[in-house]
Amino acid sequence: NAGTEADVYISVYGEKGDTGSRQLLRSQKPKKFLKGQTDIFAVEAVHLGHLYKIVIGHNGLGSGNGWFLDKVVIKDPITDLDYTFLCHRWLDQGQDDGKIARELTVTDASTFPGRQELELKREETWAAEKWKFQKGNTLQFYNRLTRGFICLSPDSGVDALGDKKNKYGKVFFMW
Q1: In the chain, what percentage of residues exceed pLDDT 90?
Q2: Chain segment 102-129, per-residue pLDDT in tens
Q3: What's the whole-number mean pLDDT along residues 35-39?
Q4: How far is CA 64 from CA 28, 35, 74, 108, 123, in A?
Q5: What pLDDT, on the 0 to 100 scale, is given for residue 110?
Q6: Which domain of life is it from (predicted)?
Q7: What are phi and psi of 145, to 5 degrees?
Q8: Which pLDDT tens digit goes with each residue over 127-160?
Q9: What are the residues facing 89 on neighbouring strands?
Q10: DSSP H helical ranges for the chain
């Protein structure tokens, strides 16, 4: 239920003006705004210079109109620059803060060098390590200072006395 059937509108703002409100009509996909899908739209406008914000939202009409928006990427065909606007929030009257429109500012690549690479690494690391945090597992960390083990139990208990023995057979070293 993260997609929407509502009409979606965007306004793009740059140093030389804005596009005004534009409905996103024709995606390159047969059905637009589906959960997990990336839609691509062509929006014709005069060149706005460097972009700094967008306003994106929907009209709230139709069944299942709530929408979870991850991000918007605008490719400037003149400069070949990509502008990323992170959202990662609901546009839904019944979710989050109830807003169906959001004002998003550009995520400046110079402010976050390698952000996409870092996010990809985070996702890969979590995919590889999440098994450790499954229900029933006891996590045991070796403390180099005390040369003992700190155990995090499934019942949310913590044994931080620094026992010298490996009680559970699994050790995850944290530095």
Answers
A1: 15
A2: 999 998 754 455 556 667 777 788 788 7
A3: 80
A4: 22, 12, 26, 33, 29
A5: 47
A6: Eukaryota
A7: -70, -50
A8: 887 777 777 777 777 777 777 777 777 777 777 7
A9: 69
A10: 115-129
CA–CA distance, 27 with 132 (Å, rounded to integer): 41
Domains located in the chain, CATH noted: 8-114 (2.60.60.20), 130-173 (no CATH)
- Tokens for 62, please give them: 């139709």
Tokens of 14: 């740059």
Specify the DSSP class assigned to residue 119.
Answer: H
| Residue 92: closest CA among 81, 101, 100 | 100
69 pLDDT exceeds 60? yes
Alpha carbons 65 and 103: distance in angstroms, whole number: 19
What is the Cα–Cα distance from 123 to 63, expressed in whole angstroms? Answer: 32
Which residues touch 84 (CB under 8 Å, ≥6 apart)?
A: 71, 72, 73, 106, 107, 109
Q: What is the residue type of 108? A: D
Reference 103, options 127, 72, 146, 132; nearest CA is 72
Residues 84 and 97: beta-carbon distance below 8 Å: no
Copy the structure tokens of residue 100.
Answer: 């169906």
| Contact between 41 and 26 (Cβ < 8 Å) | yes
Here the tokens at position 148 are 């003992």
Starting at the edge strand found earlier in the chain, the sheet holding 139-143 runs 158-163, 148-152, 139-143, 172-173
If you compute the radius of gyration of the chain from its CA atoms, what whole number of angstroms results?
A: 23
